[in-house]
Amino acid sequence: MTHRFTLRVYYEDTDLAGIVYYANYLKFIERARSEWIRTLGIDQREMKEETGTVFAVRRLEADYLHPARFDDELEVQTTTEAVTGARIVLRQHVLREGEVLFTAHVTIVAINETGHPARLPANIRRQMH
After folding, report:
1. Does pLDDT of 53 surpass 80?
2. How far, in Å, CA of 16 to CA of 28, rounded?
């Protein structure tokens, strides 16, 4: 399953040349992951309150292929590659009109309130498969 999230590049997302500042791609893919989680019916605030578990990025490998520019409409595609007891591995692509501009391989882990690894609640693991 691939989740799709669209966004527009605003002036604040760009540098003086009108090109998206590199760190903003990380914000774009974070927004897409948050919306993906929401579409699965997972309330992250509720998960924290009930289980003390939150998601954190453990590892991220990114490739910047082509620049996005001011006013571009982008699509972020998020695909699940693996789900284990305590981690989720995702592949994310940022596209403009079908052209891949940016890719990321992201490992998300579950942690408890003390920052230690935690198991993903079983119902959440099932929803992510």
Report:
1. yes
2. 19
Amino acid identity, position 73: E
Which residue of the set 13, 15, 63, 72 is catalytic? 15
Max mean pLDDT among 3-17, 36-50, 110-124 falls in 3-17
Region for 86 from its dihedrals, namely left if φ exceeds 0, alpha if ψ lies in -120 to 50, beta otherwise: alpha
Task: Say what the alpha-carbon torsion angle 75, 67, 65, 97 is, to the nearest 10 degrees.
Answer: 40
Domains and CATH numbers, the chain: 2-128 (3.10.129.10)
3-class secondary-structure state, position 109: strand
- Name the 3-class secondary structure at 97: coil
- Residue 99 near residue 57, CB atoms below 8 Å: no
Q: Is 72 a catalytic residue?
A: no
Furthest CA-CA distance within the chain: 47
DSSP letter for each residue of 25-51: HHHHHHHHHHHHHHHTT--HHHHHHHH
User: Token match 């003086």: residue?
Assistant: 16
